[in-house]
TrEMBL record:
Subcellular location, record wording: Bacterial flagellum basal body
Domain Flagellar hook protein FlgE/F/G-like D1: 84-121
Residues covered by the Flagellar basal-body/hook protein C-terminal domain: 404-448
Protein name per Swiss-Prot or TrEMBL: Flagellar hook protein FlgE
Residue intervals passing through the bilayer: none
The keyword Endoplasmic reticulum appears for this protein: no
Acetylation keyword on record: no
PROSITE patterns xref list: FLAGELLA_BB_ROD
Protein's job: A flexible structure which links the flagellar filament to the drive apparatus in the basal body.
Domain Flagellar basal body rod protein N-terminal: 3-33
UniProt-listed Pfam families: Flg_bb_rod, Flg_bbr_C, FlgE_D2, LlgE_F_G_D1
InterPro entries the UniProt entry points to: Falgellar_hook_FlgE_sf, Flag_bb_rod_N, Flagellar_basal_body_rod_CS, Flagellar_FlgE/F/G, Flg_bb/hook_C_dom, FlgE/F/G-like, FlgE_D2, LlgE_F_G-like_D1
Flagellar hook protein FlgE D2 domain ranges (all copies): 162-330
Highest classification ranks of the organism: Bacteria, Pseudomonadati, Pseudomonadota, Gammaproteobacteria, Pseudomonadales
Amino acid sequence: MSFNVGLSGLYAASKQLDVTGNNIANVATTGFKSSRAEFEDVYSATKLGTGSKVVGSGVRLANVSQQFTQGDISATGNVLDMGINGSGFFVLNNSGSLSYTRAGTFKVDKEGYVTNSDGTSRLQGYGVDNNGKIVNGVLTDLRIDTSNLAPKSTTTVSSTINLNSTSPVIDQAVATNKFDPSKSETFTKQFSTPVFDTQGNQHTMDQYMVKTGPNTWDTYTLIDDRNPDGSDPTDAATPPIASTMTFDTSGKLVSVSTPVPPTVPPTVPAPAPVISNELKITNWTPGKVKDGVWTANGAAADPAGLTIAMGSTTQFNADTARSIPVQNGYATGQITNLTIDGSGVLLANFSNYQTKPIGQLALASFTNEQGLQAVGGTSWKETYASGIPGYDAPETGSLGTIRSNSLEESNVNVTNELVDLIKAQSNYQANAKTISTQSTIMQTIIQMA
């Protein structure tokens, strides 16, 4: 019996050395989780129990458990290097077989899919719809789309404007004061805003402010120095149409009144002016001027028209000025770089200063992480003991935060492992000594026979 006890001790010490050696070997492995050998004693027993004076039968390996404690997060500078600060696992798909890992060393294959370091499995997450909205609930292969971002025509322009209440009135009844965009003395202030047509061509929209009375201002809107329909604003037959802004005695905007252009033949009775807090351009034909001749460029304005919000316009005794205008159109964009935020959203940045989400990675969680089966490659598989995985976006519930440009290092503590190595070596030597002692005793008994 003593031989068996000693042999079990040798086997246990050998396993402890194996586990410790494996931990030390993977001290530099990204996302590696250290293991711990767990032992239990052995007793021989009958159906009636072990009794009170039974000597143990040795030791056996009960389990090799992995320690899913957090590893240090170190910066790498590679945007597709990702570490999880907190709980959760990256989800990988290899031809329909899912595995789970903490090693965030990802790259892009020739088709644009985000894969693990050896390119055999694709990172899983959530895609986006045509409007750039994350579609949660269904896992898909994450793919970085490097195609150009299609242009968007301008539909809205907004800004905060103050018109100086002390500016002199320009009497447009006087012929020399009649509005002319080429003569600065016929208007009080000019504001320019870039706008875009359906093909992504940029145009300059100018608003000319003309003070016509103590609390009234006219505003003329031209695009590329032409009327929105492309006609010459200096032509007496096609002069620009002014919208009139009216302010109350406290300098707040009351209304914007825009006359309806006359029709041919004229509408009887004539339509009433449109009164609101915004200007609406519905007759814009995009074009360009070359050698003094305007021609349409083949593009169009947005079918919804172009709305200029004027509700934030005031008339105070301060300089006439405008905040930076905001408009929602843009030209064609080429992808310039990729960023990944803490919630795992992949954001593509384009040359036209637009940012578009192209996906969001998902994390998996398990009720019993210790039940996961290690399959190599710093990956694990789901088992009956681990329970089924739950999928969700990072920073949801107890799931951790994604750290882009970083990797989670191994959680192996080399100092502790070296101490365990010494203990395992001592255990091995001690168990070998019990076998040697038992052998000496048996030889003595044989010699007495």
